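User: Here's a structure from my thesis project, written as structure tokens. My advisor, Dr. K., wants to see whether a designed sequence matches the one we expressed. Can you design one independently, without my sequence as a hint?
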């Protein structure tokens, strides 16, 4: 492909509609497949929490060990149930 054609294809791939297609594959609920999407994030968050990563502080001009944690998520109630593993419907919901 030529440079202009390739940049046009990349531009199309980065459009919101193209990105959402990767996550929304069908009208059915993907609750049994959600781990496939979340596992890379979980692995990286575990690494950042347990081991940390060496990071450079420009103001102090030295390296330090940075650790990170996911403190909040913003989602609807069904997604909350899927992420937390708790039931959100019925008598116990």
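Assistant: Designed independently from the structure alone:
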């Amino acid at each position: 492909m030529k440079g202009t054609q390739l940049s046009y294809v990349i531009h199309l791939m980065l459009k919101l509609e193209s990105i959402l297609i990767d996550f929304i594959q069908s009208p059915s609920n993907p609750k049994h497949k959600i781990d496939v999407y979340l596992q890379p994030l979980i692995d990286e968050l575990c690494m950042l929490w347990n081991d940390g990563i060496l990071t450079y502080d420009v103001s102090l001009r030295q390296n330090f060990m940075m650790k990170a944690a996911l403190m909040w998520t913003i989602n609807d109630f069904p997604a909350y149930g899927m992420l937390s593993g708790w039931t959100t419907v019925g008598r116990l919901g």
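When you compare it with your expressed construct, this may help: Residues 28-84 form one domain.
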